[in-house]
Amino acid sequence: MEELRIGVVGTGAIGRKHVRRITERLKGGKVVAVSDANLAGAQAVAAEYGAELFEDGGALIASPGVDAVIVTAWDPAHKEYVMDAVRAGKYVFCEKPLATTAADCREIVEAEQAGGKRLVQVGFMRRYDEGYRRMKEAVDGGFIGAPLMVHCAHRNASMDPEYEDDYMITQCCIHEIDLVKWLIDDEYESVRVLLPRSTKFTGRRLHDPQIAQIRTKKGVCIDVEIFVNCQFGYDIQCQVVGECGAVNLPDPSYLPYRKGAVRGAALCTNWEDRFVEAYNVELQEWIDATRAGRVDGPNAWDGYVAAVTADAMIRAREAGEGMPVDLPERPAFYR
Ligand code: NAD
Ligand code: ISE
């Protein structure tokens, strides 16, 4: 295939970043069409990048001038656009989450299987981060023996005061939910959520921090601290402890300094900077695989597993007790 002609539905913060990286940094793809419910925003992006403006996302997806679709609209619109792309037989990269409920993800999985071809990739970009990839190589290669425990932290400096409890799971922890199962090659069995004392810096709708705990089918125990008003930066941590060693996610390399009788190093303040290279690699690999007629990255089934696990966590938090992660076996179509 010549250059991949890409249509982007959703020209908010991350949509614009993806348009820019495809245009200025990546190879093999061109953004030819854009659309957004905020027409003025999409119009500005269309003018800047010479793309065609569509008032309607569905029309963009149906356009014969669009080979493949990127969905970066807000979460509740993902399902509709992914379904449109699947029905049109077009490859689609959808930012996480695949859809806001497990039932909607299931519908996508069923539609894709009915079409007989894998088309959907979900934007779980942590799998493309160099540090996590090195950890996975070490775990897969037996460097630490069988994994026993995984400790994670997902910290944001601060969130909008209207941020809600469920977003801790569906917008933040959803990354760790996908990442850890990939990292240790396991399936989830049950979850629970602990609520430590809440910080005074949180908004009225949010208990912050929360600790999600997951037990896997092989018996590995995973804990994820989600703390979105930690005040000190955007800080992502991960450690896998195995039978004969442990591996840690490397921190991004900032210049260490000595100044004013302090030895220090800066921390990231936002997810865009922390994972900028992961987004670049993720979308380059998506363009390459799409041109070759494949889906190599996290697929619709991974999106479904993440949604089922997230739903179980929300129920576990509300009930104050453990909940099973009820999933059918992964179909051969997704192996
Ligand atoms: P944003 O609010 O800046 O942008 C969302 C855009 O969607 C807005 O421009 C809005 O007008 C548009 N929109 C809303 N409803 C629409 C509809 N029905 N049709 C078309 N457009 C519609 O948010 P964002 O930070 O850019 O996030 C966008 C998506 O990317 C979200 O799903 C979010 O979860 C995901 N995201 C992923 C990561 C990651 O690390 N992978 C990081 C941030 C955001
Ligand atoms: C945001 O929604 C993301 O998806 C980022 O990757 C995540 O790390 C951040 O905490 C979320 O707010």
Give a brief rundown of this model.
This protein has about 325 residues and is an alpha/beta fold. About 35% of the residues lie in helices and about 25% in strands.
Strand content: 15-25%
**Overall form:** globular
What molecules are bound to this protein? nicotinamide-adenine-dinucleotide, (2R,3S,4s,5R,6S)-2,3,4,5,6-pentahydroxycyclohexanone
> How many β-strand runs?
15
Q: Enumerate how many helices there are, as a single number.
A: 10
Radius of gyration: 20 Å
Oligomer: single chain
Low-pLDDT segments? none
Major sheet attributes: 7 strands, mixed
In what order do the strands lie side by side in the largest sheet? 12-11-7-10-9-8-15
Mean pLDDT: 97
State the separation between the terminal residues, measured CA to CA. 26 Å
State the secondary-structure class: alpha/beta
Order of helices and strands: EHEHEHEHEHEHEHEEEEEEEHHHE
